[in-house]
Amino acid sequence: QVQLVESGGGLVQSGGSLRLSCAASGFTFKRFRMTWYRQAPGKERELVAGIGGTGIVTDYADSVRGRFTISRDNAKNMVYLEMYSLKPEDTAVYYCRADALDAWGQGTLVTVSS
Questions:
Q1: How far is CA 111 from the centre of its chain?
Q2: How far apart (Å, rounded) are the C-alpha atoms in residues 83 and 99?
Q3: Of 3, 6, 50, 98, which has fewest CB within 10 angstroms of its CB?
Q4: Which value, to the nearest 10 degrees, does the dihedral of the CA atoms of residues 97, 98, 103, 106 take?
């Protein structure tokens, strides 16, 4: 059974940082591209960052490039999203996804206060 569990969200002031984690199980983690999405209130879910199975290839939304870093630890079946210089517009529920499996976690809420 594929399972993704996010953690690390919370309330942070503008300019602050957070590190999100996603624990994966139930599939051969290292074979799959992993992504982080977010959904702000009243908006559609959007892609934030992605990372290939080896961890070498990464991509980012323009809105977060240079501020967020995606990484993974295939030995621990974990994917991370380090977020710096957070802005109020980064406020959203952040979701971890295993792309090819179309599997989603339950999400973790990030709130950035101005």
A1: 14
A2: 21
A3: 3
A4: -30
Three-state secondary structure call for residue 96: strand
d(CA 55, CA 64): 18
Is the distance from CB of 8 to CB of 16 less than 8 angstroms?
no
Closest-CA residue to 9 (of 106, 85, 94, 105):
94
Check if the beta carbon of residue 81 is closer than 8 Å to that of residue 87: no
Residue reference for tokens 């070498």: 56
The answer to whether 37 touches 46, Cβ cutoff 8 Å, is yes
Q: CA-CA distance, 70 to 36, in Å (whole number)? A: 8
Contact criterion met (CB below 8 Å) for 107 and 22: no
Interatomic CA distance for residues 92 and 47, integer angstroms: 12
pLDDT tens figures, 39-79: 999 999 999 999 999 999 999 999 999 999 999 999 999 99
CB 68 within 8 A of CB 80: no
